[in-house]
Design a protein that fits this description.
It is a single chain. By secondary structure, the protein is α/β, with parallel strands linked by helices. The chain has a single domain, classed as CofD-like domains (Rossmann fold). It is about 40% helix and about 20% strand. The strands form three sheets. It has an eight-stranded mixed sheet with strand order 5-2-1-9-10-11-13-12, with helices on both faces. The longest helix is centred in the C-terminal third of the chain and has 18 residues. About 50% of the residues are buried.
């Protein structure tokens, strides 16, 4: 009897919300590709953008750490060091910076880290160059940068300026995907910041994959404060239709509720499944509950997932990580 290949799942977004989804997908028998925004301009990532012009590594780092089988190195990747100005620097960001300097490619740097961490899936920057998120607001007009975009009150359109070419690895994954999962996470600064980079939206709109929005558990801060699910879907469709010059795009939605699974539809006809994806009092998706909901909604059994056995500690891998961090510190001259 021929072996059925695992479904190919593409996730898209930033670091925090996408990491919650990846933690759930790790428990399922599927092939994972996480496509990550390059428009972050805050924190440690923002400092590296400013100092050396590299695409921001922070969201990539979080996704790598979540998918890592080598939990010891993943924990080390998330450690923080103080630089000469007493500002925190992530070990993983420094390692990715050094790998980026060596390879001259963000994708190759991420692949180096993924091999070191023994990741259960592939992490893919949406582009090889940094982008600037631009949000057009009804009241305030044009707002540039993720940090500033969080303060707008009436956002209508978002797009990322800078990268003119999508990472071909991302395009290939989108074209081959069985499912494309968007969210959870900040709608404008994570989801749309990924979708509106170069020609990603066109690729997603034309992809044959089933497209699912994973709804957030709590109300977002601005710019999507008080948005209902149907407004997210409308904005997604608008952005994808414009990018693809008229392609009709359909979505379905997975959202939380405390009872048994319920299937229904939004007023515009969008299919929606309501399922328990977190425990009472939680503000983040529970990996086990979310994986079970996804397995039921997407149609493949969670119990067939292959357990991830952590590799034994490897002094050579730890040495490689430390060497990259020390080299980065010397080059930045602020550590």
């Amino acid at each position: 009897m021929p072996t059925i290949p695992p479904p190919k799942i593409v996730t898209m977004g930033g670091g925090h919300g996408q990491a919650a989804l990846l933690a759930a997908l790790r428990l399922l028998p599927c092939s994972i590709t996480a496509i990550v925004s390059v428009a972050d301009d805050g924190g440690c990532s923002g400092k590296l953008r400013e100092e050396v012009g590299m695409p921001p590594p922070g969201d990539l780092r979080r996704c790598l750490s979540t998918l890592a089988r080598n939990r010891n190195l993943a924990d080390a990747f998330e450690l923080r060091l103080l630089d000469a100005h007493q500002e925190a620097r992530s070990v993983g960001n420094l390692a990715l910076f050094e790998a980026y300097q060596q390879y001259g490619s963000l994708q190759k740097a991420v692949d180096w880290a993924a091999e070191l961490l023994q990741c259960a899936g592939r992490v893919v920057p949406v582009a090889e160059s940094p982008g600037v998120l631009v949000v057009y607001d009804l009241r305030d007009g044009r707002i540039e940068g993720e940090t500033h975009a969080q303060d707008v009150s009436s956002p209508m359109v978002a797009m990322v300026h800078g990268p003119t070419k999508t990472n071909p690895v991302a395009v290939s994954a989108i074209q081959q995907a069985d499912f494309i999962l968007l969210g959870p996470g900040s709608f404008f600064t994570s989801i749309l910041a990924t979708l509106t980079t170069a020609d990603v939206a066109e690729a997603v709109a034309k992809a044959k994959a089933k497209k699912v929005l994973i709804a957030n558990l709590v109300e977002e801060n601005d710019p999507a404060k008080s948005f209902e699910v149907i407004e997210y879907i409308r904005l997604l469709r608008d952005h994808l239709t414009i990018a693809s010059i008229g392609e009709e795009v359909t979505f379905s939605v997975l959202r939380h509720h405390d009872g048994d699974d319920e299937l229904g539809s939004l007023p515009d006809g969008t299919p929606i499944m309501s399922s328990r994806v977190c425990y009472p009092g939680q503000a983040v998706h529970d990996p086990i509950l979310l994986s079970r909901a996804l397995s039921r909604y997407l149609g493949f059994p969670a119990e067939k997932a292959i357990p991830s056995v952590p590799p034994p500690p490897n002094a050579e891998d730890e040495r490689k990580l430390q060497e990259h961090v020390e080299a980065a510190k010397r080059k930045l001259r602020t550590m």
